Amino acid sequence: MPNYILNTSRQMAKRHGREKRFKWYGRIAIFISIAFLIFMFSAIVFRGASAFQQTKISLDINFSEAIIDPTSSRDPEILKRANYKPVVLESLSNVIPGITDRRDRNRVYKLLSAGAVFDLGEQVASNPKLLGKSKSVWLLASSEVDLFMKGKIDSNISEDLRRLKDKDIEWIEILKSQGKIKKTFNTTLFGKGDSREPEMAGILGAAIGSFFSLLVCFLIAFPLGILTAVYLEEFAKKNFLTDFIEVNINNLAAVPSIVFGLLGLSIFLNFFNLPRSTPLVGGIVLALMTLPTIIIASRSILRSIPQSIRDAALGLGASKTQTTFHHVVPLAMPGMLTGTILGMARALGETAPLLMIGMVAFIVDIPKGVTDVATSLPVQIFLWADSPEKGFVERTSAAIIVLLVFLILMNLCAVYLRKRLERRW
Amino acid sequence: MIYETKTTHEEKGNVPSIMTANNVDVFYGKKQAICNVSLDIPENQITALIGPSGCGKSTFLRCFNRMNDTINICRVSGKIKFSGQDIYEPKVDVVALRSRIGMVFQKANPFPKSIFENVAYGPRIHGLAESKDELESIVVQSLKRAGLYDEVSDRLNEPGTSLSGGQQQRLCIARAIAVDPQVILMDEPCSALDPIATAIIEDLMETMKENYTIVIVTHSMQQAARVSQQTAFFHLGELVESGDTQAIFTNPIQERTQNYISGRIG
Amino acid sequence: MSLPTENWLRRKNRRNQIKELVIQGVLIASSFVAILTTIGIVASLVFEAFRFFDKIPLMEFLFSLEWSPQTAIRADQVGASGKFGVIPLLTGTLLISFIAMLVATPLGLLSAIYLAEFAKAKTRDAVKPLLELLAGIPTVVYGFFAALVVAPIIRATGSGVGFDISSESALAAGLVMGVMLIPFISSLSDDVINAVPQALRDASFGMGATHEETVTKVVVPAATPGIIGSLLLAISRAIGETMIVVMAAGLAANLTLNPFEAVTTMTVQIVTLLTGDQEFDSAKTLAAFAIALFLLVLTLGLNIIALHIVNKYKKKYA
C-alpha cells in the first residue's frame, strides 16, 4: 500500500497547517475591517439617537396685555419682540415654590431655552387673540436640562464640575413630579437652521444648502459628463488631442478634493466674482470634481453597448449623430444615470472643497436659492463637531445619521436603477 | 523521503497497470460530462486519449490527479485507483497525490519567474532538496530529462516567459519532472506548437516513458498513432473503445471509432 | 406623390451636414471642460504660488525646518515675520500616511486575497459591499469618529500604561485614515489578483502545491506590480485626505516622527490658512496655494507612477 499519497505525513500536516493559518489571517483582516465599521456606526447611532428627541417644559402662561403690548398696537413686529420674560417667570414661580431672589429668578429662567420667548412671540403675533388670556404651552428646555433628561449628565459628580447645579436638578424633579416636563420628537432638528444654542439648532438649512449645491452640480456635471463620454467613445479619433483629454480626465480623478476648493476660491470667487459661500459656487466646484467619475463610468457603459446596434442604424443610412443619439445614448442612459447618482452621492459627502469657498460660515437662515449663503450637511457636521457645547455632540451624530441615510438612499436608488434597467448583451 | 518503489500492481495482461479507473462519472452541476468510463493505464507506457472536441477526454484526464477539485461545481463518482489506492478516499491528500501524478497543460504556463525558479518550484514546496546543491542538481537533471538543458544552460536566470513556445512547454515538462512523479498527465501539450516543436516533444515523450507513465490527451490522431502504445477513443462523454494503438487504428471494433479515424465524425 | 427633386435632396444634405457639425462642436466643447479644469487648477495654483514666492524665497519654503505662519500685525511684534518651511508639514503628512498604510496594507491585502482566492461566492457577495461601504462613508464622519472616539481611547490607553499621548496624536488620525483606505487597497488588489491567469494557478496545483503555496508563491508574486500600484494610489489618497486630519490631527507644526505627538499636515494648514478672516494677498493666504501646488505635484506624481505600473501589469496578462 503506498502511504505517500495519504494525509498522514508530518510534512503534509505542516503544509496544510500553514494554509489553515493563512486563511485565518484573511478572515481576521475582514473581521477587523467590518468590526470597525460596526463599531463606528454603533458609536454614532448610540450618541445620536437621543438627538431625535428634545425636552419641553409645559407652562401656563398668562398673556398679560399690560406687559406684552402696553400700547395695544397689535403690531405683529411689536408682539414678536415684546418682553415675555416676566410672564414666563410668573408662570414658573407658580409651579416651582420658593423662587424669590433675583439670582434664583435668573437661574430658573435658564431652565428654558433662550429661544423659548421667541416661540411665544411667534405664537402671539400669529394669534393676537391670546392677549389677556391664559394658555398652557410647551416651551423648549435649555440644552443642559435636555441633556439631564436624557441621562447624559451625571448628578453624582461634584457640583463644581457641572453647569447644571443641584438646585436646577431639584427644580427639574418638581417639574417632573407634576408632569410638566417631557421629551418629544425633535422637530427643531429637522425644521430649523443653525444656531449657537444646541437646543435650537437644526439641519434644515444645511440640508437645503446641500440640495441646492447638488442641483447645480447635477445640472452641470450630468450633461457635460455624458457629452464628453459620448465624444470620447463614439466620435473622437485616436489622436494627440484625444489622448490629452483622456490624460486630463484620469489625472483630475486623482486630484485631492481640497485642491478643487482652491480652484473655486481663486477662479470663481476672486476672478469671476461669483457670490461667496453660496451653493452656486459649491455646486460648480463639486461638479468639476465629480465630472471625471461620471465620464469614466459613462464611457464604460457606452463601451458595453454592442457594435451591432451601431452597425444596424448606420446600415439604414442614419448619420453618426443620429445613430449615437437615437440608439446608443438611450440604451446607455440607465447606466449613465447610475454612474451619475453614485458620483452625486460622493459629492454629497464632500466637505473640504466647500470649506475653501466659504460655505463654512455660521448661517441661521434657510437658503431660498442657489445664490443665498448656505452651508451643507457635511460642513454642518464639521462645524458642530468643532463646537464646545456638549449638546452639539448628539446633534452632530444625528446629522451624521441623516447624511448617511441620504447616502444609503442614493446608493439604493443606483442599485435599483441598475437592477431594473440592466440589459444583458 | 517520497521516492519509493512501487509495491503492488494490478496486472493486466503482461503490462502492470499503475492506474485504473472504474465506472467513472463526472458531472458539471447537473450536466454529465463523463459517463461510466473504465480504463486501465499501463505502467511505463504512453496512453493516448483521443476524440472530437468536447468529448470529455480532458475532463477524464483531470480526474487522475483530481484537478477537477479546483472547479467548484464539478463532482466525480466511481473509483480511480493509483497503485491500488482509491485516490478519492478522504484520507488521500490531494496535494501529495499531485506530487506523484504531475500535469502538463495545453497552453504552456511557466510562472513569471526565472527558468531556474520555475523548475525549482516543485522541489521547494515539497521539500525535496536538503541543500542548495541538491536543488541545483535536481533542476539541472530535470532540464536535461526534458531536453531543454543545452538550450538554456547559460541563461537559467532569465524569465521563463522569454523562451519560445516549444521551449516553454518543455520547461513545463521539466517543472513537472522535477517533483519526480510516477505519472505525467499531458493535456494537448502540442496543440499550440509548430510541427518542429511538436516533433521534439514527441521524441522527448518517447525517452520519458522509460521512467514515467504518460497519459496524453490529443486532438491529433497522427500524434496518438506516433507516440502511444495504448489508445482510448472518447465520444460524447463515453469511452467507445480502448486498446492497443496499432489495433485501434488499423482494425477498430466499433463503428464510431472507424468513422472518427477515417474523418467522418469529429 | 411627387419624387423629391435633386435640388431638395442636396439642400437637405447640406442642412444635415451642418447639424452634424454643430453637434460635434458641442461634444468637443464639453470635452474641453476637463482640460479647462486642469488648466484652471494649475494656473491658479502656480499664479498664487509665484506671488507667494515673491515674498518668501522658494528655497526657504522647501528647506526651512520651521512652520509658523503668524505674520505680525505691527512691525515691532515678537516673531514679526512668519516662518514658512514646508518640511514639518511634509513629515507630518507622511507620518500620518505611514501609520494609515501600516493599518490599511495588511488588512486590505489579506482581505483581498482571502476574498479572491479562498472565500465562497456567498461570503464574497456579502462581504464586498460591506467593505465598499467603508469607502462610501464621507471623510467628515471618519474625522468626527477619530476625534470623538478613537483619540480619547488612545489617550486613555496611553495614560493607563503611564504614557502621555497627545489628544491630537498622529496615531488617532492615522489609524482611522487607515481604515478608510482599506477598501481602496482591497478592491484594487482584488482586481489585479483576479487578473492573474487561471493557468498559473492550475500549473501550481498540478504540481501538488497547496492553495496557500499557490497564492503566496505564484499568484501574489505575479500580481505584485499591480498590488504596488494600488498601494501607491492609496498613499496618494492619504496624502491628499483633508477632513480626517483637520478634525483629528493638530495645528502645531512639530517636526517629529513620534506617532504619539500632535503633528499637522499640508491639508490641515491649507484649511487653517484659508478659513480665517484675512486679506487675500497676505503671505499667509498665499502660502496655502504654495502648499497646494506642492501637494498636487506629490499626489499627481504618485498617481502617474501608479497608473503606469498598473497598466504595464495589465498589458502583461491581457
Describe the structure in your own words.
The complex is a heterotrimer of chains A (425), B (266) and C (318). With 425 residues, chain A is mostly helical. Chain A folds into 2 domains: 54-184, no CATH class; 204-421, MetI-like (MetI-like fold). Chain A has 18 helices and 3 strands. Chain A has a 3-stranded antiparallel sheet. In chain A, helix 10 packs parallel to helix 13 (279-304), helix 12 crosses helix 13 and helix 13 packs across helix 15. Chain A is extended. The model of chain A has no long low-confidence stretch (mean pLDDT 88). By secondary structure, chain B is of the alpha/beta class. In chain B, a hairpin with a 2-residue loop joins strand 5 (74-82) and strand 6 (85-86). In chain B, the strands form 2 sheets. In chain B, strands 7-8-9-4-10-11 form a 6-stranded mixed sheet, sandwiched between helices. In chain B, strands 1, 2, 3, 5 and 6 form a 5-stranded antiparallel sheet that branches. The longest helix of chain B has 14 residues, at 132-145. Chain C folds into 2 domains: 4-55; 83-317, MetI-like fold. Chain C has helices at 6-55, 58-63, 87-118, 121-136, 139-160, 170-195, 198-206, 211-240, 243-248, 266-275, 283-316; strands spanning 67-68, 83-84. In chain C, helix 3 crosses helix 6, helix 3 (87-118) runs antiparallel to helix 8 (211-240) and helix 8 (211-240) packs antiparallel against helix 11 (283-316). Chains in contact: A-B, A-C, B-C. At the A-B interface, helix 1 of A face helix 2 of B.
Write the SSE topology.
The complex is a heterotrimer of chains A (425), B (266) and C (318).
Chain A: H1 10-48, E1 53-62, H2 65-68, H3 76-81, H4 85-95, H5 102-109, H6 116-126, E2 134-140, H7 143-149, H8 166-177, E3 181-185, H9 187-191, H10 204-235, H11 240-252, H12 257-269, H13 279-304, H14 307-315, H15 320-349, H16 352-356, H17 377-386, H18 391-421
Antiparallel strand pairs in A: 1-2, 1-3
Helix pairs in contact in A: 1-18, 10-13, 10-15, 10-17, 12-13, 13-15, 14-15, 15-18, 17-18
Chain B: E1 10-12, E2 15-28, E3 31-42, E4 46-50, H1 57-63, E5 74-82, E6 85-86, H2 94-100, E7 101-104, H3 115-126, H4 132-145, H5 149-152, H6 165-177, E8 183-187, H7 195-208, E9 213-217, H8 221-227, E10 230-235, E11 238-244, H9 245-250, H10 255-261
Parallel strand pairs in B: 4-9, 4-10, 7-8, 8-9
Antiparallel strand pairs in B: 1-2, 2-3, 2-5, 5-6, 10-11
Chain C: H1 6-55, H2 58-63, E1 67-68, E2 83-84, H3 87-118, H4 121-136, H5 139-160, H6 170-195, H7 198-206, H8 211-240, H9 243-248, H10 266-275, H11 283-316
Antiparallel strand pairs in C: 1-2
